[in-house]
């Protein structure tokens, strides 16, 4: 799972601080050492780790912690802040051109996920009301053009590909012609897929730089495979020197990745991460928010993304109702049941559950999550009375036994569901009030 190991390691580190009324400098040094080790193990670049742990240590030794009522939680807060900072701070969105089509060029190594990303980005832009066009300027890889056409068809967007014999072999010309075509046909975003090589290669860089010069893109997005590990920094620097880019897209964040690339690239290049790609399907794609990613790494849950995904999965009326319920803290287990029943896509369910706070403990179960799991959760909720679904507080011991018996599950399973639901509800309230959610079980900040 996403940052699974790092999350576990950090959670263990923080657990050691739990319940300490005061932190000695030795406690802080020990904690910082643990964090350093966890980050290095997650393949975060050494320079980034040094910087990060230095700042965490300075702040942890300072006033804000020693004067705090709950120093452990304060340390978590500092780590959270600094994680947000190395992930780029404020979220940044695509900057659209004021006149004419917005041109977005994609660059990155072969296999980084550019072509897939082109389709994801186009589909997402379309859902946001744009009319994007994809351009096949990767004329190197034999079936790259066909692959882009397939992806374009799945996304339901236009694809500009060179006619056989016309401009073939000249990606610069293809890209320029495509922009003329976009102007003619009123496409408002042009996404140019370019060729990558397996490794850093001067020829490829030159070609990408030439395309960039010819089409003067509004954004150049560097797509990087999150699984590339320690090579992330070298690769990113090479692309920055060779082509330069305005933003980063992290792909394959769904893999069993250690996530180091994600945590290194933004701070090393000074370029913001704009999107994250989390699977092979065109819907596995999210705008990137440094603060939400930090929350996920620290297992604080990612309620905002959860809400947005719910909105994408349901029709407008339903999603308005859900958003309203989140905001007013009236989202009940009954609503949860309805949502689950409406979700047809297993991937979305896994994603949604994974974003609930405290999902760490459930991670293994999530990996093996299958239809029967949904059936069981459904059965548990269905065995509750309407009252219980609306006011989970009513669920005392004997009611839980009754529900477990009624649903053919165990009291542990019932407890698990209710706990997670209550934690999520609490966080939604905090988030709705503009606060930072806390680590479950660590007490208030
Ligand atoms: P390109 O050479 O940069 O255009 O890379 P492709 O778009 O062809 O992607 C290379 C491989 O990675 C393909 O098999 C994709 O299906 C896969 N891929 C792309 N993005 C993701 C992702 O976010 N997650 C996973 N698991 N696979 C991905």
TrEMBL record:
<dbReference type="InterPro" id="IPR027417">
    <property type="entry name" value="P-loop_NTPase"/>
</dbReference>
<dbReference type="GO" id="GO:0008312">
    <property type="term" value="F:7S RNA binding"/>
</dbReference>
<comment type="subunit">
    <text>Part of the signal recognition particle protein translocation system, which is composed of SRP and FtsY.</text>
</comment>
<comment type="similarity">
    <text>Belongs to the GTP-binding SRP family. SRP54 subfamily.</text>
</comment>
<dbReference type="InterPro" id="IPR013822">
    <property type="entry name" value="Signal_recog_particl_SRP54_hlx"/>
</dbReference>
<comment type="function">
    <text>Involved in targeting and insertion of nascent membrane proteins into the cytoplasmic membrane. Binds to the hydrophobic signal sequence of the ribosome-nascent chain (RNC) as it emerges from the ribosomes. The SRP-RNC complex is then targeted to the cytoplasmic membrane where it interacts with the SRP receptor FtsY.</text>
</comment>
<keyword id="KW-0694">RNA-binding</keyword>
<dbReference type="InterPro" id="IPR004780">
    <property type="entry name" value="SRP"/>
</dbReference>
<dbReference type="InterPro" id="IPR042101">
    <property type="entry name" value="SRP54_N_sf"/>
</dbReference>
<dbReference type="InterPro" id="IPR022941">
    <property type="entry name" value="SRP54"/>
</dbReference>
<keyword id="KW-0342">GTP-binding</keyword>
<feature type="binding site">
    <location>
        <begin position="108"/>
        <end position="115"/>
    </location>
    <ligand>
        <name>GTP</name>
    </ligand>
</feature>
<keyword id="KW-0963">Cytoplasm</keyword>
<dbReference type="GO" id="GO:0003924">
    <property type="term" value="F:GTPase activity"/>
</dbReference>
<feature type="binding site">
    <location>
        <begin position="251"/>
        <end position="254"/>
    </location>
    <ligand>
        <name>GTP</name>
    </ligand>
</feature>
<dbReference type="InterPro" id="IPR000897">
    <property type="entry name" value="SRP54_GTPase_dom"/>
</dbReference>
<dbReference type="GO" id="GO:0006614">
    <property type="term" value="P:SRP-dependent cotranslational protein targeting to membrane"/>
</dbReference>
<dbReference type="GO" id="GO:0005525">
    <property type="term" value="F:GTP binding"/>
</dbReference>
<keyword id="KW-0733">Signal recognition particle</keyword>
<feature type="domain" description="SRP54-type proteins GTP-binding">
    <location>
        <begin position="272"/>
        <end position="285"/>
    </location>
</feature>
<dbReference type="Pfam" id="PF02978">
    <property type="entry name" value="SRP_SPB"/>
</dbReference>
<keyword id="KW-0547">Nucleotide-binding</keyword>
<dbReference type="Pfam" id="PF00448">
    <property type="entry name" value="SRP54"/>
</dbReference>
<dbReference type="Pfam" id="PF02881">
    <property type="entry name" value="SRP54_N"/>
</dbReference>
<dbReference type="GO" id="GO:0048500">
    <property type="term" value="C:signal recognition particle"/>
</dbReference>
<feature type="binding site">
    <location>
        <begin position="193"/>
        <end position="197"/>
    </location>
    <ligand>
        <name>GTP</name>
    </ligand>
</feature>
<dbReference type="InterPro" id="IPR003593">
    <property type="entry name" value="AAA+_ATPase"/>
</dbReference>
<dbReference type="InterPro" id="IPR004125">
    <property type="entry name" value="Signal_recog_particle_SRP54_M"/>
</dbReference>
<protein>
    <recommendedName>
        <fullName>Signal recognition particle protein</fullName>
        <ecNumber>3.6.5.4</ecNumber>
    </recommendedName>
</protein>
<keyword id="KW-0378">Hydrolase</keyword>
<keyword id="KW-0687">Ribonucleoprotein</keyword>
<dbReference type="InterPro" id="IPR036891">
    <property type="entry name" value="Signal_recog_part_SRP54_M_sf"/>
</dbReference>
């Amino acid at each position: 799972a996403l940052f699974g190991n790092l999350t576990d390691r950090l959670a263990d580190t923080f657990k050691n601080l739990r319940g300490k009324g005061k932190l000695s400098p030795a406690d802080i040094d020990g904690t910082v050492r643990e964090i350093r080790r966890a980050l290095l193990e997650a393949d975060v670049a050494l320079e980034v780790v040094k910087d990060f742990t230095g700042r965490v240590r300075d702040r942890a030794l300072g006033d804000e912690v020693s004067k705090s009522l709950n120093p452990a939680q304060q340390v978590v807060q500092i780590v959270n802040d600094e994680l947000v900072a190395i992930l780029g701070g404020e979220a940044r969105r695509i900057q659209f051109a004021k006149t004419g089509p917005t041109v977005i060029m994609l660059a990155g190594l072969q296999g980084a996920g550019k072509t897939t990303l082109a389709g994801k980005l186009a589909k997402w832009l379309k859902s946001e009301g744009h009319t994007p066009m994809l351009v096949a300027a990767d004329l190197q890889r034999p079936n790259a053009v066909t692959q882009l056409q397939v992806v374009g068809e799945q996304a339901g967007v236009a694809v500009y590909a060179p006619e056989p014999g016309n401009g073939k072999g000249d990606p610069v010309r293809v890209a320029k012609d495509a922009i003329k075509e976009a102007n003619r046909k009123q496409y408002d975003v042009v996404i140019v897929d370019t060729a990558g090589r397996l490794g850093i290669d001067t020829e490829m860089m030159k070609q990408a730089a030439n395309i960039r010069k010819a089409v003067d893109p509004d954004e150049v997005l560097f797509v990087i495979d999150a699984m590339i590990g320690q090579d992330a920094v070298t690769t990113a620097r090479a692309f920055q020197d060779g082509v330069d880019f305005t933003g980063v897209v992290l792909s394959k964040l769904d893999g069993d990745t250690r996530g180091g690339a994600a945590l290194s690239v933004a701070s090393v290049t000074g370029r913001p991460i704009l999107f994250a790609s989390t699977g092979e399907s065109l819907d596995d794609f999210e705008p990137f928010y440094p603060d939400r990613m930090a929350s996920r790494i620290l297992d604080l849950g990612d309620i905002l993304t959860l809400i947005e995904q719910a909105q994408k999965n349901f029709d407008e009326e339903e999603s308005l109702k859900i958003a309203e319920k989140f905001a007013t803290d009236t989202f009940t287990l009954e609503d949860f049941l309805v949502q689950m029943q409406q979700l047809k896509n297993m991937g979305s369910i896994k994603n949604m559950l994974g974003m609930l706070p405290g999902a760490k403990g459930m991670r293994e179960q999530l990996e093996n999550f299958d239809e029967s799991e949904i059936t069981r959760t459904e059965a548990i909720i269905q065995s509750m009375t309407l009252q219980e679904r609306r006011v989970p507080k009513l669920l005392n011991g004997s009611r839980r036994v009754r529900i477990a018996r009624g649903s053919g599950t165990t009291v542990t399973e019932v407890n698990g569901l209710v706990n997670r639901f209550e934690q999520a509800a609490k966080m939604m309230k905090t988030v709705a009030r503009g606060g930072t959610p806390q680590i479950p079980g660590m007490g208030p900040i």
